[in-house]
């Protein structure tokens, strides 16, 4: 299945099985705004919980907060968002469509990367089991040429953006012959900067109302609460503050389903460290965060690090964990060494000292910050798109199955009475549901033939189906079917809890990080 077709199927499946709906759909929707449906809300919650347990619960020196979305407007002046939170935008004069200039260039490079992947696939077919991918991509002349072209383009783009040379960004687009994706036109305007923050008002009347912003990130709520948390929690450096929550950006080029939205959720942790130790902590969090991603078993080859060509003026190191989405490798999580910029900025603008007294060294200093920041919605899309597969079975039929990591699945098991009209079977099935739902999210499904119910639960991502039949009434046994293997096994009802727990328990999954 072509990547574009796969992505269309992801979007369609997300709606059909109650994961993601277009917001305000009955009014023709709102661009780049989505609602999480009954299954989507559960999957999103489970991803959030999986992150929180790994980040907060499993670390003695990391705590969580929940800061307000509204913050004093000076916060965003201090953070630099008022003056510098911009995207470089370019308009096509013929189609009248607006694009992010950097995204146009990155998409051009992604097409070159697609050519590299084609070369790799051809070589895999040619050499079979003897194929060494790492050796091939590091020695093949055509691949090296493609990669050199990508590196040259991205390096120039990064330097131009860093130097705010927007004329050169336009020149690069023209030199590469990049066309409007919709019309094919190459008739571009100059590149201009556009601030991404949403403005709003606080107050009862227009005369006295204060200008506010919807927060464009969750990190600043952590920084302004640094001293409050440190003192009330008696925290010693190094320590971290974690937070999940909504953020808002007026994305002009919001696209690719829930990958880039105007209202989204972040999972961030700011780790406060002693100046001079940032390099070792940067490597530590790179390793730790990649292990967290890989613990979900979504394929090690689907992840890679991408070091930033263009560093923010306050950073001394930055990298992204990229994931192989249906539309190519894109940023999933950022890991940034932010130095002491944030706390010093808030010190300057607030007039309050935001320093730490180190009793061991008997000195005051402004801590450095190591940040890990992941988009919850992007993580949702990574999990969902990677899990959706079509399998051809031995009898030639095709089943669509959503192989979600069991720990994240919205519904852990569905209980199915074999015959809908048999009161004894339905009563026993509902009793099993009532017993299991204290620990797991469990569904009851009695409509249609049992084979069709299996397929429905496969497509919805339910790891287990439990079938109650005539034999169940006699000996208290049921058939439990595993989604991924379709293996069926006869077990006693009393065994169900332990079987399910072994597959969905957070501990079992997070222990893979060890």
Please describe what this structure looks like:
This protein has 514 residues and is an alpha+beta fold. The chain folds into three domains: 1-70 and 196-388, Bira Bifunctional Protein, Domain 2 (BirA Bifunctional Protein, domain 2, 2-Layer Sandwich); 86-193, no CATH class; 411-513, Rossmann fold (3-Layer(aba) Sandwich), CATH 3.40.50.800. Helix content is 40%, strand content 24%. It contains 18 helices and 23 strands. The strands form seven sheets. Strands 3-9-10-16-13-12-11 form a seven-stranded mixed β-sheet. Strands 20-19-21-22-23 form a five-stranded mixed β-sheet, sandwiched between helices. β17 and β18 form a beta hairpin. The longest helix is centred in the first third of the chain and has 27 residues, at 101-127. The model has no long low-confidence stretch (mean pLDDT 92).
Tell me briefly what this model is.
It is built from 18 helices and 23 strands. The protein is of the alpha+beta class and 514 residues long.
Radius of gyration: 26 Å
CATH class of the largest domain: Alpha Beta
Strand order of the largest sheet: 3-9-10-16-13-12-11
Total DSSP E strands = 23
Approximate shape: globular
User: Architecture of the largest domain, CATH level 2?
Assistant: 2-Layer Sandwich
Indicate the low-confidence ranges by residue numbers: none
What would the average pLDDT be, to the nearest integer? 92
Helix proportion range: 40-55%
**How many distinct domains?**
3
Number of helices: 18
Structural class, from secondary structure content?
A: alpha+beta
Please indicate the percent range of residues in DSSP E strands (runs of 2 or more).
15-25%
What is the CATH homology-level superfamily of the largest domain?
Answer: Bira Bifunctional Protein, Domain 2
CATH-assigned fold name of the largest domain: BirA Bifunctional Protein, domain 2
How many angstroms separate the termini?
36 Å
Largest sheet: 7 strands, mixed
């Amino acid at each position: 299945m072509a990547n574009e077709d796969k992505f269309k199927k992801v979007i369609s499946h997300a709606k059909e099985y109650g994961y993601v709906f277009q917001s305000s759909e009955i009014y023709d929707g709102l661009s780049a705004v989505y609602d999480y449906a009954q299954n989507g809300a559960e999957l999103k919650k489970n991803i959030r919980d999986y992150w929180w347990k790994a980040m907060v619960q499993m670390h003695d020196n990391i705590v969580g907060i929940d800061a307000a979305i509204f913050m004093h407007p000076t916060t965003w002046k201090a953070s630099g968002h008022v003056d510098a939170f911009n995207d470089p935008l370019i308009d096509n004069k013929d189609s009248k469509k607006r694009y992010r200039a950097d995204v146009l260039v990155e998409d051009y490079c992604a097409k070159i990367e697609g050519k590299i992947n084609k070369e790799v696939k051809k070589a895999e077919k040619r050499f079979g089991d003897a194929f060494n991918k790492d050796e091939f991509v590091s020695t093949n002349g055509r691949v090296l040429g493609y990669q050199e072209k990508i590196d040259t383009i991205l390096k120039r783009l990064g330097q131009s953006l860093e130097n705010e040379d927007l004329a050169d960004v336009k020149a690069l687009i023209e030199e590469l012959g990049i066309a409007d994706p919709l019309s094919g036109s190459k008739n571009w305007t100059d590149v201009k900067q556009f601030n991404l923050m949403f403005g709003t008002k606080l107050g009862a009347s227009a005369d006295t109302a204060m200008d506010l912003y919807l927060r464009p990130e969750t990190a600043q709520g952590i920084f302004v609460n640094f001293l409050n948390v440190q003192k009330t929690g008696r925290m010693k450096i190094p320590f971290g503050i974690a937070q999940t929550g909504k953020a808002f950006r007026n994305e002009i080029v919001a696209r690719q389903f829930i990958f880039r939205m105007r209202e989204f959720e972040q999972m961030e942790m700011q780790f406060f460290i002693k100046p001079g130790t940032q390099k070792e902590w940067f490597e530590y969090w790179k390793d730790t965060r990649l292990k967290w991603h890989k613990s979900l078993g979504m394929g090690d080859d689907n992840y890679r690090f991408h070091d930033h060509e263009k560093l923010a003026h306050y950073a001394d190191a930055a990298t992204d964990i990229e994931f192989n989405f249906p539309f190519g490798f894109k940023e999933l999580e950022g890991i940034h060494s932010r130095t002491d910029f944030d706390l010093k900025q808030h010190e300057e603008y607030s007039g309050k000292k935001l320093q730490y007294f180190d009793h061991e060294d008997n000195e005051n200093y402004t801590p450095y910050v190591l940040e890990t920041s992941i988009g919850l919605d992007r993580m949702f899309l990574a999990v969902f798109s990677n899990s959706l597969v079509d399998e051809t079975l031995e009898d030639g039929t095709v089943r669509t199955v959503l192989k979600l990591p069991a720990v994240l699945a919205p519904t852990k098991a569905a209980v199915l009475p074999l015959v809908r009209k048999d009161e004894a079977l339905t009563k026993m099935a509902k009793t099993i549901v009532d017993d299991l739902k204290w620990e797991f999210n469990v569904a009851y499904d009695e409509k249609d033939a049992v084979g069709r119910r299996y397929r429905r639960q496969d497509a919805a991502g339910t790891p287990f189906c439990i079938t109650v039949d005539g034999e169940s009434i006699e000996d208290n046994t049921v058939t439990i079917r595993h989604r991924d293997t379709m293996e069926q096994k006869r077990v006693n009802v009393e065994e169900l809890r332990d079987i399910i727990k072994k597959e969905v328990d957070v501990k079992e999954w997070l222990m893979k990080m060890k």
